[in-house]
Amino acid sequence: MLKSIERITLGGGCHWCTEAIFQSLIGVEKVAQGYVASTGEYSSFSEAVIVHFNPDLIELKRLIEIHLYTHKSTSNHSMREKYRSGVYTYSETQKENASKILENLQVDFNNKLITKVYPFRTFKASREELHNYYRKDPEKPFCKTFIAPKLTLLFNQFSENTN
Questions:
Q1: What's the pLDDT tens digit per position in 32-65?
Q2: Residue 73 and residue 21: Cα distance in Å, rounded?
Q3: Which band of pLDDT confidence, cut at 50, 70 and 90, is reported for residue 13?
Q4: Is the pTM above the cut of 0.90?
Q5: Is domain 6-161 classified as CATH 3.90.226.10?
Q6: β-strand 116-119 against 46-53: which pairing, if any?
């Protein structure tokens, strides 16, 4: 039986880059880029994408794994508040699953993951002209410098999941 489309919100640097990564995956139905907020100390907005996916075609574990490998999931920098590394969940079950996935994937990294699991609170879409940033003009300097190398890594390391 076909499962329904699920969603997860992922923050990890520039949402233009993150959008291009997840738009390239088999099983991802839609990617919305913008700004996410959680609760408590993480109530400020940071760049993120909402990924709508078919779990029959790509599992949450694989999405999180790809997320960790395609952004700086082990390093802090001065802009980390704006570019928070996070997995924003929509239910207690999804939170528990995401936390276990991160814990299990930690062994694949030499340094400690800084990616945290947060409850999703709200999302503001970015301006319409920024949507599909890479797809609209992959020759832009930003695209060639920052997005293309991430896509190369994706296609090399996760080719079975890309279209």
A1: 999 999 887 767 889 999 999 999 999 999 999 9
A2: 15
A3: confident
A4: yes
A5: no
A6: unpaired
Assess whether pLDDT exceeds 90 at residue 75.
no
Both tokens of 2, joined, read 């076909």
Question: Where do the domains of the chain lie?
Answer: 6-161
DSSP annotation string for the chain? -PPPPEEEEEE-S-HHHHHHHHHTBTTEEEEEEEEEE-SGGG-S-EEEEEEEE-TTTS-HHHHHHHHHHTTTTT---TTTTTT--EEEESSHHHHHHHHHHHHHHGGG-SS----EEEE--EEEEPPGGGTTHHHH-TTSHHIIIIIHHHHHHHHHHSGGGB-
Q: How far apart are CA 26 and CA 160, in angstroms?
A: 9
User: H/E/C letters for each residue in 139-153?
Assistant: CCHHHHHHHHHHHHH
Among 117, 125, 121, 21, which residue's Cα sits nearest to residue 67?
21
CA 163 to CA 155: how far, in whole Å? 9
